[in-house]
Amino acid sequence: MAADKTYQHAAGSQAFVSDPDWGPRRRSRQRILIVGCHAGGEVGMVVLAGVAAPAGASVFEVMDRLRADDTLRRLLLREPRGSVAQHANVVVPSNREDCEAGFVIMEPTEYPAMSGSNTMCVATVLLETGIIPMRSPVTRLQLEAPGGPVVVEASCQDGRVSQVTLHNVPSFADQLDAPLELAGTGTITVDVAYGGMWYAIVDAEALGFSLEPSEARDLAVTGERIREAAREQLMCRHPENEAIAGVSIVQFAGAWQGVGEASQNAVVVAPGRLDRSATGTGLSARMAVLHARGLMRVGDSMAHRSVIGSEFGGRILGETTVGAKVAILPAISGQAWITGVTELLLDPTDPFPQGYVLSDTWPGPDRQ
After folding, report:
1. 249-253 and 198-203: which strand pairing?
2. 79-93, 97-111, 256-270, 353-367: which range is least confident on average?
3. Does the pLDDT of residue 366 top 80, yes or no?
4. Are 224 and 191 spatial neighbours (Cβ–Cβ below 8 Å)?
5. Which domain holds residue 209?
6. Catalytic status, residue 115
7. Which residue among the candidates 13, 18, 58, 115 is catalytic per the annotation?
8. What CATH number does the domain containing 277 carry?
9. CA 130 vs CA 19, 37, 161, 183: distances in Å
10. Which helix (H) or strand (E) is 336 found in, with range?
11. Fewer CB within 10 Å: N-end or C-end of the chain?
12. What does pTM read for this prediction?
């Protein structure tokens, strides 16, 4: 009976949710509306209101200005409001007539040009909240990511998005079997490829990993060592946007199982944790490497499976060029789920308006 009374009391107090004069809401100097979402287990919050995004001719310019200031990312992703295990996507207007909206991706230490799981989250939130009208059985839209426009085809029924297929930015292999000196290990070889982010792809088995959940911490530590070494030793720069430069993410690739099959992978996100999803940009980069080696062709498909068992499907839609590089046009498929709605508040007396990081949960320095 006591539990029932407690529940009734809590339920009756929910009037504050819609009360504009509720004390904390009234005195907050910033109120941000966030829809929680995850794709394949990777958290990608979607910011819908409460943020005055700077002007820019492109979403890349908007991202650059947000990055130069960086207070919003710190507010959203650092403790006590955020964590190292989540991303934030700020929905912004697009100046492109062929795009319904744009979005800036904020990750724990960087602002990537593209992210597959975050795109799935953004598309799902925009459609399931009704911001962009949903059409069954498939809603086709185009969103502007910092790395360029992305076509999205969402399978929709009864107000729900059951699958998102995104036509990712052109992806290409930059360096195959590049030697990399890793302190304490010696020389290893990596493939450097672009799938919307710059990847160093390493053979998991060659480093003694079987890509099991129990290896998560060791994978994260080793992945950060590889990333830091790759940034120092292996220069990479996007031929069409030199601001997109340097390896920022590491993929441990399990043995390739062949066309049409699912292969295991694990991606390490700075500052040192595993991506819970199968990683859309990572799958794009992997297919670009396999294409460069002649193992995949236009029309071929494969899937990636993460350490928690979630999968993204990939297909090579076509070929193109990026500068002098032969590139593929990848399509990535997966699903996202909305987890809740949050109104983030910033009290003017809060001593941590830009949050904080501690090494017990945030390995290494905060690089941004």
Report:
1. parallel
2. 353-367
3. no
4. no
5. 172-334
6. yes
7. 115
8. 3.10.310.10
9. 23, 15, 12, 51
10. strand 336-346
11. N
12. 0.93
